[in-house]
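dumping the sequnces here before i forget
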Amino acid sequence: MSFLYSSNLHWLWLALIPVALWLFRRKAKRMQVSTLLFFRSLAREHQESAWLRRLKRILSLLLSLLVIALAAFALARPFRDGDGETPKSLVILLDRSASMGAKNDRGRTRMEEAKSMLKERLKALPENVITSLVVCDAKAEVAQSRSTNRRELLRLIDQTDAAPVEDRPEEALAIAQRLAALDAPAEIWQATDKFQNSENGKQKTVNDSRLRLLSVSLEHALNIGITGFQIRPAPLARNRFEAFVEVSASSANEKKVEATLEARLDGRPVQLRQLELKPGESTRLILPLEGGKGQRLEIETRCAGDCLGWDNVVIAPLPETKPLVVAWFSDGPDPFVELALSSMLAEDRIQVLRGGTTDFPPKEKPDVYVFENWLPKDWPADRPALVLNPPSSTGPIHAKKLEKAVPYDAVRAVQPEHPVLYRVTSGRVAVTQTTVLNVSDTLEILWMAGQEPVLAAGESGGQRIVVTAFVPGKSEQLALLSAFPLLIGNALYWCAENNEALASLKPKRPGEHVPLESGIVKWRAWDGSKFVDESDEAKGGWLELRRIGVFEGASGKVDSSLLLSIHESDIFARAAAAAAKSASENTTQRWAAGGGWWTNLLWCALGVLLLESWLFHRQAVY
Amino acid sequence: MPREELFDSQFLDRLQTLALRLRKRKVLLRRGHQSTPATGFTREFKDYRRYTARDDYRAIDWRLYARLEKLFVRLYEETQELHVHIVVDTSGSMAQPFEQKRNQALRFAVALAYLGLAGQHRVSMYSMKDTVRQELPPLRGQGNIEKFIAAAACWEFSGFTDLEKAFASFHPTRQRYGAIFVISDFFGRDTGSAVEAVNQAAGWPGETHFVQVVHPQEIKPDLDGEFELSDVETGERRRFWITQREVKQYTQLFDAFSDNLSHACASRRIDFFRCSSDEPFEERFLDLLTRGSALASA
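..and the predicted 3d for all of it:
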């Protein structure tokens, strides 16, 4: 056993006082009285025999000494390190990601549990141990670096709150290890809810530092959350949008849960879906929406007993649709291609720059290249490209024109779920192959006509490419169906998905820094249970997103910040049996570390004092 | 204890002065002589009554017979001498630890004896412990006061009080009208024994006076701290831690004891008089007698 404040053991000399009082105690005065008639009913405890009185006196002295000893020991703060030597330094790695905001049945968040656990353990830590505090979510922040100021450390821990941000603990762990290496031997306490129960309290050795995992995961978790969201204008439709939503259930859920998903436009319900999700299961929905620019879309999932509120809501403004600039270079344009592109022109969705083979390269960079029956010699790798009926091979395109076109009665959709084939009816399509494609490993075949690929899409060197091997004018049924315009529209949008023209359709994530004009930023934020109006200040043209909701910058630019993290929504939980085992392990460990022992000693001293008073002085002390 | 300490040379002079003051106060209060319902052979005519057989024929008023031709006898006033019984508690509690109690009790006893002797009454003096013992035979005449003083000065105050047993053994004569004075602190074996003793005293002939002599420390002890108290009569020892709270409880108990004794005496037509040992004797003695006593009116 060791003492944190061994200097306080000097208070043991106070024990001399009761000993001296006992040795030089005042003897009872002897006095004669006329009668004891009226004294007999007083102070009965003094009427016992002499030996019992002497025994009581000795017992009272011993109890008094025990009170003083217990109080002195308590002030000296005894502890016993069950794991060997005391570290020279300690680095606390505190997770403050979104999942730390998950609440248990009593409404306590994981962050509150982590704070309590850390404070309890820190009580047993010797004062001379150097401490550091690293808080982490998407980034790591060193809140305290190599200090012995324990009060400051406790204050910083107290100030730490969970934020709706996805965590990336690797960077924080690396920083913690660097800090630990400065004052070896060191110990790292990582407080998070991301560990399985079996790992709780375990100790690992990482780069000469002992890493102790402190799990604050829930005993019973029930959570569903929106883990994917995207909104885009519906192809070939005005004022129509499609919202893609992915709802996931935590793998720690004990059984299948029923949930509702409600979509609202400016607070007006427009969609309501009932969902049933098995543990760990995800479901994806596409919600058609009708609305205008500037309207606010809110999608909320509800489930009884949900422990994390931050992932239940997405909120985003309906996007402003910019025209997609398409540079179309053709050697003999097909009328049906022209028809398809012009149909999108009518919706103001696409701006087509038409040119011949000699106009390449264009002066202004388009969003998407469309090459029809022609390919440039110098393949442009800086923009996505839609290649229709390539006559030869260039760059990533490997093709050879057929001398004679080959008609096919039907095509087979190899990947019907691919975005390029969204709403494209493949069953009734008949095509006439005019080019043989040699699809490399980077492109995926979407349509097969017989044994030949006639439609492929994929990325090559970061460039999205869609290639067709047929001519619509020679394909009888294809020209009469809406499949081809849809296919062209899907291909263009898919190619330009990461383009700046469509960038406003993608939400931001908390933890990111977004460029924004300096000034006040107004928020319509979701705090986990309700929407609140808040404001931030963008400094230096950047804003760090720390909330969930819609924000509007000084310039009027509106964007949204959403959690959308399967990592955070998949709440960890402890099994009941394992939780009990964990509790006992925790107790043992805390005892070994001495946490809270001194308070027990103080209570014990107080109890002995009261017992002594009650036993020997209850009739005499007033 | 030397006689001089109790009764110095001036004590008798003070007693004479007391007698005069008492007579003066008696006149002022217009108190009459103590007369008895009996008839006798004094020269004071009282009444007539028809002659009946066995009456003394010498008492027939012949002159009245001559006028009325009926026999009447003359009745004369008969005044009897009082028999004063003075019972003094000589147990240990009357002298220890407060000697003033004994002095005060003996002063009361001697003063009462002097008053009785001066009034030509018969005076008997008794000592009381667990029984009542007659220390002097009935005496009459002022010259016998010295005997009383000498006897009182020789008394030894020790032993314990048993009021019930002592009162049961005390039988004052019924031949003469008596005045009985019991001077004691009335501390018995328990708090109820004094009341029981009062019941026995109710049967005594004549008027009875209980004079309780106590010390101020017995009324409200000045104690604070731990004490080993020993009873002077029984030798019993007890240890107590006494605080103001205990003192308050003690005072309440003592007052309740005195009140019970006073009420018990009042219900039995017994005069109860409490006197503290530190109070001036003369004033308290006059107070005792002016409350109403045959001795004072004789």
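The radius of gyration of chain A is 37 Å.
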